[in-house]
Amino acid sequence: MPRMKTKHKEWDMDVTGRIKELAQEFEPYIIEKRRYFHRNPELANQEYNTQNVICQELDDMGIPYERVAGTGVLATIRGTAEGAYDAEGNPAHRIGLRADMDALPVLERTGAPYASQTEGVMHACGHDTHVAMLLGTARILCELRDQLKGEVRLMFQPAEEVAQGARKMIAAGALEGLDALYGTHIWSEVDAGTISCAPGQRMAYTDWFRIDISGASAHGSMPHKGVDAIVVAAELVVALQVLVSRDVSPFEPMVVTVGEIHGGTARNIMAGTAYLTGTTRTWTAKSRAEMPGRIEKLVGRIASGLGAEATLSWQEGHAGLNNNPECAERARRGVVKLFGEEAVSDYEGTLAGEDFSEYLKLMDGVFVFLGGRNPEIGATYPQHSCYYTIDESVLKNGSALAAQYAIDYLSEA
């Protein structure tokens, strides 16, 4: 029997209530999976065990899938609501839900009972929670197939941390036939119990650089007979910060970070070569385009002034992340339905980067920040910290919101 339009809001809340019940029911499962993936982290493009476990879980749920992009997975939940498919078997609409999978080269120091068992590798950015939450969403949606007016594509993506995974998934056809896309990141700057889903730009343009310095080695006691590449590198580290503080308007968000510096072969030999690597984060396409030239000019002048030579290598990362306003509003409504107005965070955004932006360059979608910060349990450390942890009580909320968004999108599209 078709539902009366006057009953739509009541019916909608019935579905939301069922989503919340299922999220609560599956919470132990979501947390258990999160802890498993946290104990067993894998670096970018090496997520073989993660992929196998995901596929086993999908098999158990009866969800068909394919392995793509090396260690990625695409799976499909077929809806059974009236009008989900046309006479030829084509879905009325298709929504994608994405989770990234890779860990970081970080030595964990949390002391958690489920801490990483792989030396020097840690889920220090929360991707373990993303996989677990999407599996939780899959279980919720399997129970609510009769509310799905179309299909839901589950996208388990590798290699986000090295800015490769999204492009690999796109090349593998992950976006083919999709109408829109939804993604989540658990976030240390957003309070647990709240969720940010604002429209517009939310994350920065991300690029990478390496500077190779060539000086002249000499005995450590005779520095005047060589050109110290380490001294040049040290000058460059400081000068790169002046680029941000003095060469760019204070109203233009920008970050230049040197993450590595290497040089020298022995304590009594002045280094003849050195190199440093880092990342830039910019908020506008214009600033991004100008950054390589600015750094190259600065590097050349400093190296020349100190009698050395230096070469800049530049690697483009991914674009700034922009939420489609309509999709963002749908996500906000989902938060309010599930958790109330007080759960909507006013988080301003971040200069961190995310390769989900590569998808949003090609189609409409939204990327939400799920609050994981809770000082009462020590969950205050930032992403990529060796002490990074989260409030696990929010994971069921992440699963619930993704399910709510998928159902709402397919009903409204």
UniProtKB/TrEMBL annotation:
Lineage here is: Bacteria, Bacillati, Actinomycetota, Coriobacteriia, Eggerthellales
> What organism is recorded for this protein?
Slackia heliotrinireducens (strain ATCC 29202 / DSM 20476 / NCTC 11029 / RHS 1) (Peptococcus heliotrinreducens)
By its UniProt entry, which PANTHER family does this protein fall under? Answer: METALLOPEPTIDASE, PUTATIVE (AFU_ORTHOLOGUE AFUA_6G09600)-RELATED (PTHR11014:SF63), PEPTIDASE M20 FAMILY MEMBER (PTHR11014)
Q: How is the cofactor bound?
A: The Mn(2+) ion enhances activity.
Keywords from the named record: Hydrolase, Manganese, Metal-binding
One GO BP annotation is: diaminopimelate biosynthetic process
| The Peptidase M20 dimerisation domain, residue ranges | 208-301
Give the protein's cofactors. Answer: Mn(2+)
* Single GO term (MF): N-acetyldiaminopimelate deacetylase activity
Chain positions recorded as Mn(2+) binding sites: 125, 127, 161, 185, 384
This protein's name: Amidohydrolase
InterPro entries noted in UniProt: Amidohydrolase, Bact_exopeptidase_dim_dom, Peptidase_M20, Peptidase_M20_dimer
**Superkingdom of the organism of origin:** Bacteria
Q: Which residues cross the membrane?
A: none
